[in-house]
Structures are given as C-alpha cells and as structure tokens.
Amino acid sequence: MSDALDPTPYDALLLLSFGGPEGPDDVVPFLENVTRGRGIPKERLKEVGQHYFLFGGVSPINEQNRALLDALREDFAEHGLDLPVYWGNRNWAPYLTDTLREMIRDGRRRILVLATSAYASYSGCRQYRENLAESLAALKAEGLEAPRVDKLRHYFNHPGFVRPMIDGVLKSLAELPDDVRDGAHLAFTTHSIPDSAADTSGPVEQHGDGGAYVKEHLDVARLIADAVREETGVDHPWQLVYQSRSGAPHIPWLEPDICDHLEERHRAGAPAVVMAPIGFVSDHMEVLYDLDTEAEAKAAELGLPVRRSATVGADPRFAAAVRELVMERAARESGTAVAPCALGALGASHDVCPVGCCPARAPKPAAAGADSPYA
Hints:
Blueprint: E1 12-17, H1 27-34, H2 42-48, H3 50-53, H4 61-78, E2 85-89, H5 96-105, E3 110-115, H6 122-141, E4 148-151, H7 159-175, H8 178-181, E5 185-191, H9 195-199, H10 204-207, H11 212-232, E6 238-243, H12 258-267, E7 273-276, H13 285-302, E8 306-308, H14 316-333
Parallel strand pairs: 1-2, 1-3, 3-4, 5-6, 5-7, 7-8
Helix pairs in contact: 1-2, 4-14, 5-6, 7-11, 7-14, 12-13
C-alpha cells in the first residue's frame, strides 16, 4: 500500500484482557488469581467454578481474543499500519507481565494499550492500569527498563463499536415471531458493580457528579434504541439492566438484575424481550452463562420469548475503530490536532485518566494516567 500509516511515537499495541481458563484443571487456579488477597476458601471457588465446569472448564474469552488479534492484524496490514500487536491477560496465560517482558526484549519502548472494557469504572479501567503498574514494577525489579504505556481512550461511543451492536439488535428482532416483534422490549445489559463504584466512576470534571459508568451505558443504549426506531419505524421500549453480580448481599449493587427484569416485563405484559449485552466486548462466560443459560431459562419458565443479540467481538468495524483510535492518539501525541470520533451526547472520553479517576478503596499506583509512575 502506497500511503502507509505512521503510528509514531508508538511502536506496539498491547491487547489487554481479563483472561479465562482453557480446561477443567485451570478453573480453580484461574479463580485464585481473580480473587487473590480476598481469602476465599478453595471449596468456595469450586462452587463458583461450576459456571465454567458446565462448559468443560473452558471460557470462550481467550479464543475470542485470538480472533480479535487476527482481525486487528489483518486490518492494520490492509491499511498500511505497521504496528505489531501483542496480547496479555490479567488473570491467565498469556500473563501481562510475561507479555510486557517479551515486548521489552523485542525493543518496544512506547506502547499503546487496548483494554477489552469500553466504559469508565474501577474494574473496567483503573484496575487494568494498576495491573500495568504492578507488571512494570516487577520488570523494573528484574533490571529491565520499563517502556512508556498509554491506554487508548474509552471507546463505548465510537461508531465502530456501536454500529455492530445496532445490527445485532436488528437481527435479534427479526428472529422473533411476527406477532410479538413490534411489541418487543429491549433490555440493554451490563455488568453490575457496587453503587459506590458506579457513583465515583469517571472524572468529576467531565461528568459533573461522577457516575460515568451508568451515564455512558445509557448513552449507548439510547443510540441503539434510536437507530432501531429509525430503521424499523417501531419505537421499542427499553431499559438498562444488570447481570453478573458477585458481591456480598449487604452491599448495594446496581439493579435491576436481568432475571428480575424479565419477570417484571412478563408481569407488565411485554410480548417479548431482546437482551443486548452492550457492556461486553465479546461473548465470554458472563454472556454465555448469565444470559444464554440463566436468563434464557428464566424466560422459558415464564413463557416469554427472548433473543440475545451478539456482542462486537472481532467484527471488522471494531478492528477498524481500533486502528482509528490508534492513529487519533498518535496524531495528538505528535502534536497534530485531530477531531475524535464519537457518537451520542457525551463526546469523546479523555486520553489520560486524571488524578482520582475511578478511585479504589485502597489506592495503588496505576500506569497510563496523570499520576502514573510510568507516564
């Protein structure tokens, strides 16, 4: 290709994800990694792991990340972007520290990070940045020179993320029986988090009173619902609902739960529901179990027709969006003013997380932010 894209000052992209077990023997060690420091007994982890054992102890997330890697590399090559793409996980192989060590040995000095979480929150952004700081500190202790890492901005409202979800909802509606399709309700689902984490998500200066996690999801849900109305001529009722709660019962978490919502919609006379997991990048275990297994079982019990729309996954439009985000960030880092691409009312998110953004109960160093020790 004649017009090669120049990603300077960056020399690599790191796909940073959660990780998941790839066999029955991996399940408990994986959950030990996830819950490290919380003192949860192994027998309790075996109980929690039943979700994975139902599917042979394999989470789909690693294979889905491999598909996304292939999509990114193919898109970059097609568009003349010479930027190697690496992959590291927080909780399972390939581990983040090992991948960063490989990148350092390959001579990578300025790294962009794509996290498989599109929204602002402690668990969806700050915790990834803390993991980056921990890994960089460990490598520095080995005598290696830590590279600079920058995290790509939140992409929840990028057209390449939103449009595939719109198409997924349209496809799910089309699969419903004719007599219930126009009356179907849309349930936009995302991971429930503690109310306190939701309230303090995002920088106060951008969102006024915090609460970015819910605001961002509501903005995306509204974008999808509006697009569906424009393309079908039907104004489907919709609501943002939650799934995958894992906290202690006495701690308030975001509600309503998807199964409770299905019961409420059934009582209210809704003829059908499309579940759209807008909070997830791919169809990993929380989608596979909480929606495709648990929520669909609840719907069958109620006699309520449901469909579940697809996540973005390795859609070529998402891969193209990542390329656009890379070039947008590279241009700004090189001193060129560019207009960020974003839909909806909130506009593009910040490039650099400010001090105090999505705080943890026990603050730790975090990379790729205004207060980063590895800026």
